[in-house]
Amino acid sequence: MRSKTSRGDRAGRGVRTERGPHADRADRADRAGRAEQVDRADRADRAEQVDRADRAGSPSVIRARGLTKRYGDVLAVDHLNLDVRPGEVFGLLGPNGAGKTTTILMLLGLSEPTEGHAEVAGFDPTRDPLEVKRRVGYMPDDVGFYGALTGRQNLRYTARLNGIDARDVEARLDALLDQVGLLDVADRAVETYSRGMRQRLGLADALVKDPSVVVLDEPTTAIDPAGVAEVLDLIASIARERGAAVLLSSHLLHQVQQVCDRVAIFVGGRVVAQGTMRRLAEQMGGETLQLEVGAQGSAEEVEPALMSIDGVREVVPDPHDPRLWRVTGARALQGRLAAELSARGIAVWHLRRIGDDLDEIYMRYFAKEGPGDDGAA
């Protein structure tokens, strides 16, 4: 480990730019690093858009103020404040029993709050539950269909229940089945579908009425990894292409990070934090940050170059990957570290702020607040 006080006069030493013996390994890692950076850049751009909308006070299609639910002595949801805007995927994140499903039931008008109020698509779920149901597509954690009926027949039944004009039904069902990738199996009995196929059919079912709000309760439970990727892509398209507000509850952190623009972290029936991943990390991070850095060059070249940058306080090798370094320094360092290394003749192929991953953010909040014991759903 090197610190600013121990580097001596190495800060002024020139840095060679020849390829070190590990350059081929770095080149192979470069492609994976670039793909990861593109994915992170896309999420960062989306997060910036959401932050701007937040600051601008964009109108909410789901709004809750002081929403509270008690079951006897058990406080299941504790004075929840929530805003979800059109075109975004908002995640309710927390362990089983944290209050996520109870919150959803109150927003749908299926459970009456003890205190507080909510507004969904312009209506109070307690006073106007039918108006809310007309505008909200809902997929519970365990989707139920008539197994002997085909996928198309199940959707046709939902369309009839929602009063959709019979002249429009077939074209709409074909479009939905195509969107969720089930058009080729639409006329097979649902009892022959896999769990992932039933989940995709559940998404189509939630979209039959062309809702402005879509609520999904644990939509990827018990699905294989390939099925999860398909469902997450579909969820993202609902918000991006249809402009619907998507409220998603889950306890699966990695999946939430992949698809959600903002999250609310539930602990013991309370929302202890909400916002974009970037904003949550900044709230917990203070004035110091840690960066994970991958740079081309030998350790003898990269370490002193990192230590020579103003604001760097400590540089240590990553304990799991010898190609990476963990750099601790001032918050302003993130925006200029790559440029500083480039000026010293060292190319950066990977740069990530440690603590921005949702699992890291969540564990810090969860450890701070404690798990609670409220018996919420």
Strand order of the largest sheet: 6-7-8-4-9-10
Instruction: Please compute the radius of gyration using only Cα atoms.
Output: 25 Å
Total helices: the number is 12
Global outline: globular
Give the biggest beta sheet: 6 strands, mixed
What's the number of extended β-strand segments? 14
What is the end-to-end distance?
46 Å
Order of helices and strands: EHEEEHEHEHHHEHEHEEHEHEEHEH
Q: Proportion of β residues?
A: 15-25%
Structural class: alpha/beta
Helix content: 25-40%
Q: Low-confidence spans: pLDDT under 50, at least 5 residues?
A: 5-44, 371-375
The overall pLDDT, averaged over residues, is: 81
List keywords for this structure.
377 residues; alpha/beta; six-stranded mixed beta sheet; five-stranded antiparallel beta sheet; 40% helix; globular; disordered C terminus
Layout of SSEs?
Layout: E1 2-3, H1 23-56, E2 62-71, E3 74-84, E4 89-93, H2 100-107, E5 115-120, H3 129-135, E6 136-139, H4 151-161, H5 166-179, H6 195-207, E7 213-217, H7 225-242, E8 245-250, H8 253-259, E9 262-267, E10 270-275, H9 277-285, E11 288-295, H10 299-307, E12 312-317, E13 324-330, H11 337-343, E14 348-354, H12 358-369
Parallel strand pairs: 4-8, 4-9, 6-7, 7-8
Antiparallel strand pairs: 1-12, 2-3, 2-5, 9-10, 11-13, 11-14, 12-13
Helix pairs in contact: 4-5, 6-7, 9-12
